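Why do we care about 3D structure at all? Because function follows from shape, and shape follows, mostly, from sequence. That is the central idea of this module. The next example makes it concrete: a single protein chain, its amino acid sequence, and then its structure expressed as tokens.
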Amino acid sequence: MRLDLDTYKEILDTITRNKSRSLLTGFGVFWGVFMLIALMGGGQGLKEMLQNNFTGFATNTAIIWAQNTTKPYKGFNKGRSWQMEEKDLDRLRHQMPELDVITPLLFGGNKSVVFGDKKFSGSTQGVNPDYAQVSVPKMFYGRYINEMDVRRQRKVCVIGKQIYKTLFPGGGDPCGKSVRVDSTYYTVVGVDYRSGNGVNFGGRADETITIPQTVLRTAYNRGTAIDIIATTGKPGVVMSSIAQRMRETIARAHNIDPSDEKGIMVFNTEVLFQMLDNLFKGVNFLIWLVGIGTLLAGAIGVSNIMMVTVKERTTEIGIRRAIGATPKMILSQIISESILLTLVAGMSGIIFGVAILQMLEMANTTDGILTAHFQVDFWTAISSAILICILGGLAGLAPSSASTQRQKRLLSSRMFSGWQRTPGMVMTS
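And the structure:
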């Protein structure tokens, strides 16, 4: 059977002969493909949104901070309040060669940030430049705190996204302008455009004003105290394997029970990121399971409908055989009908799914910045189209094969009956 234009017109005429049945059959495939595309694109967008909350935060990080002790030790009762100090940084550097970055973090509490007649209540933190290796800022304007800012105690600051949008509603580069925090003026040197979601210490990143730790220490009379020690491991170091040694190093210097895990908190981000990885794997598996399952259900529906259609066309197929159509030609036409129906419905599902994902993408755009990509890649779409064609061919194969075999049996039966009833036949040897 030649698959020319006339043949396809004939196939299209056959499909459209019963419009309701064809539409209902095609809808099963359409919905299966749409669900697959929507789930894959939506899952990708969800994964990206979750990852964005932790973008820039080192995966091999351990955060250490002090809490009231929960165990008595060396004559000290439990419930003792204590603070880490600058010397603890040197202790970790000397006794923990596995660590790469060891940097302090100080908190100044919630303060009013004022520019002109605009005011915002945000949290303050003091850092060293190497804190950017632990939690990488997303600089929209300007720069981050540098070493000279710390050494010379420059009154400079980096403001978060929400602070920037509140104090400078007209937009533009705020670098070089002065904002007042309490009674002290700081020159803005950068804008950190991270969101406030994800891992934050001392306050949301988008509502934080960051200044040199030496400036905060002097301004709020913090002496040598440290609120948090942020560390990262060298390449290949598993932070969970050295967390207890880090706790013991700090504990010995402050007469704290090294086994007091609540007195000296060590937060290992490796555990968090492993949980996220497992979550993403589970989501991806669920997406493929639901999507492929729905698509197969649609293909089975097409096969069942084609089986019914072929049975209704028994007479037509018999006439085609009588006028010279071969089983291969009939098989080819039925499979072509199934592929065309499946392909049209499947491509409609892909187009509709991509359109829905595009609208989700537009809805997740903030300040002209796309927060997540709710799309499937080109090769995924191509693979889906190929899969649709294969499923369409398989859906039409069973009915067409059954029809061909039925016609063969019918013709054989009629020929045999006719041969038995032929008069005058004489068997000779």
